[in-house]
Amino acid sequence: MLRGFHIILLTIILAGASYIEAPLKAQAAADEAYVWNKAVTGGGGGFVPGIIFNSSEPDLIYARTDIGGAYRWNPVDNSWVQLLDWMGFEEWGKTGVDALATDPVDPDRLYLAVGTYTNSWDPHNGSILRSTDRGETWESTSLPFKVGGNMPGRSMGERLVIDPNKNSTLYFGARSGNGLWRSVDYGATWSKVTTFLNPGTYVEDPSNEYQSDIIGLAWIAFDPSTGAANQATQSIYVGVVDKNESVYHSSDGGASWSAVPGQPTGYLPHHGVISDNGHLFISYSNGAGPYDGTKGQVWKMNLSTGIWTNISPVSSTSDDNYYGYGGLAVDAQHPNTIMVATLNSWWPDAIIFRSTDGGSTWTRIWDWNGYPDRTLRYTQDISAAPWLTFGTNPVPPEITPKLGWMIGDLEIDPFNSNRMMYGTGATIYGTSNLTDWDQGKKINLSVMAKGIEETAVIDLISPPSGAHLISGLGDVTGFRHDDLTQAPAKMMTHPNSTTDIDYAELDPSYIVRVGTADKSADPNAKSIGYSRDGGSNWYAGNSEPSGTAGGGKVALSASGDSLVWSTSDKGVFYSKNNGNSWTASTGVPAGAKITSDRVNSNKFYAWSAGKFYSSTNGGASFIQTSATGLPIEGDLDFKAMPGVEGDIWLAGGNATSGIYGLWHSTDSGTTFSKLSNVQEANVIGFGKAAPGGSYMALYTSAKIDGIRGIFRSNDGGASWVRINDDQHQYASTNSAITGDPRIYGRVYIGTNGLGIVYGDALSEPNPGVNPAISPTTAVFDKKLGNQANIPVSMTLNGNTLSKITNGTVALVQGTNYTVSGSTITILSSYLAAQPLGTVNLTFQFSAGATKVLSVNVIDTTSTTSGNIQVQMYNSSVISNVNTISPRIKLTNTSTNAINLSDVKLRYYYTIDGEKPQNFFCDWSQVGSSNVTGSFVKMTTAKPGADYYAEFGFTSGAGSLATGQSIDLQIRLSKSDWTNYNQSDDYSFNPAASAYQDSPKLTGYIRGQLVWGVEP
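Request: output the structure for the sequence above.
Response:
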């Protein structure tokens, strides 16, 4: 319990405050066991803003990253273990870790403050994750505000702390003006401390959304000597990101707070550490970091006397101080020994300072020895990640590798004065002979990031020869991965960034890559580079489109004789001379996404804003195809199938637009078919075909049968298996995916901060024992007199039939089908109850691949028709939805104009729980306000219908001319937004992904049925 009746708390009741964060196991399609690993970089590849040692147990160490989760040190092999690989796709923001606390009383307890952005593009509030087994399992509490693990000031800290005397009490310093928060029940619930009145004032740049948020509270520090076991610590200090008043103190266990007298002003407190000999040390910078800061100071305050002393290694008034101070450490065994690092000394290198007399005097890790020479107090070993040279050959006084940059945290092991670690923008460096510094000897720095894989993946390719994987990455450009278990020797250069990469399918050693060249450093640098040896070596292009900053997408023709580059700023260009000159392509919008046909070197394809384009002259000109129904916005990834001309797969869309999924074209993009068995898909890739198969395996990050995961199809998308599991979800998996064309079952997955993931199938199908069915397609006519059972012959090859499913619903033997020997008979009574369109029945066996019977359900019964045609599809085809959303196309097929006010349309469904209902028309050419809707409860319920929604028009809608069509985008919902189960609704058609005739949506003119069949 918190002590003192003067404490005023604003208590927030958090609904569902405690729950298991990892989602419950659910069956999505079939599951197949895989083994998962990460491609080794050896160095991490991203910013490590926090390293936290447990103060009561040796070798219990954690690291937090800005977008790549959190890690626990494994002393057995001096590596790090990722703790958040289980985070799901929808919770991608929770891999940004803004603060971490390890319990000094109960070392098994661990806490994370997670959430990546406080800006609008992260829709989720933050959470406190809590574990009682060092991160093996987690519970979560949702916070009523956002948390910013990748926001400015992210290496300040720590913002989340545990009372060292009463470990049930925690404090968290929030961003965005949300102030100080406290938990008294081990982090399960949180309340705002309303007596703490300064939530921070500092904003980096009000004109830039990313930098415009209040950074808030920077760190919290307890003075353990002011408490006792199981009694709350009384003296607490808080650092606030405020240049006027930044350090606050409570002497009564958090009941009241006041600014500390005599404190420095004009700077921001980056770290605050209390030493065992009664001093508060603070590193200051005039910027929050990790990128900014041009001046800084270091101060200490005597906790007994309140006296402040400026102990800056270099005075802020000196021209030699051109940086802020970030990482700060006090040796727990020798409290007068302190270290501090420059946060932003970019040139010629970072500087680390060390004092053994409480800051009275300092030594530097390097000193000038007659410009441009420097004397180094260290050696540096990067053999664990040789690419940390960044492929540079700098001119002295710069050297490579650098000590680092963005050194926002530096820590001395509280149990071993010789061990020190610090985080940089690319890795963790450390030493095990730190005290040799004090003897005038050199300390040995080495990479201490084994197991950390923090790369943000931009693109992945797996060519049919050479290295099995080549990656394009954020921050560290990318690698040729000759051995996935070993760190690459060097990173790719020319250019020194990557936005896209492609290879020539018929000449795979020829690879092209685009990025954004740093013109300020080298005005002649090019944003495109080439490799002729499979990515081992790169050379810069001779030219680029005039004025471009680079970036964008690039495509290389199958034979490598044509290039198409969709730049980020100047449009789409093509080259027929290996990039020596560029010409603007015609007929294709600027910013279009592009790819090449993998067989025909003259063909290229493009997508922009829902429209698809093709070129048959090497990218010189494009023509829009007739393809419709493609995503207009959201994620978009499309690729052409190797070995099959004109075969294209396209994944993308988003839930907001209602257009989301996976599409396939076999006619060079002239038309696309949407796969009805894939609800959402973000990326698509191809790998080696299954044994006995000829069509490459498909891989996607998708939602299938309502479950998010990584899926593989061996039969061209007819059926899918989920190949990941709930402990291997990797948050954002929407950047890149590719199978391996030489290893069946191998898939490479790009993540946003969790590295390059690759999976291998544990078993390989044997074509000699695979079962088969015949036929695989059939037609069923609902017309009475035409209805007939469908017999299916099975070749079992020693297997047994496990079940037959329609989506997620298993058919019932004896009711839906019968079995006689190796023959299955699908009963007409079952098929007659299915909606019109394609019904896919999946046969699952004890071993081997699943098989699919595709039944085209039609109805040749004469329907009442004339004057109008009604076509429809449902924008959401999952069973349980809180909104029924028909998309309707109404066409006048008569010879005269029709007054729309005379027309009514009826959509039949079951309400699944009587509630008031709402009608919405989101869009129509005649104006949404001119479309009416009402709900009618049927006097007698019919199969699939106890209600119908009737849509009509006001007189303001006007008339519909002969041959003219209009669209209606309708939504129906219950007033409390509870779900409908639309799977059995009469008018629902799960098989339609584009407009098709809809006889179950009836049409009337002046009350007379003129279209469709009533139930």
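Confidence is low (pLDDT under 50) at residues 1-28.
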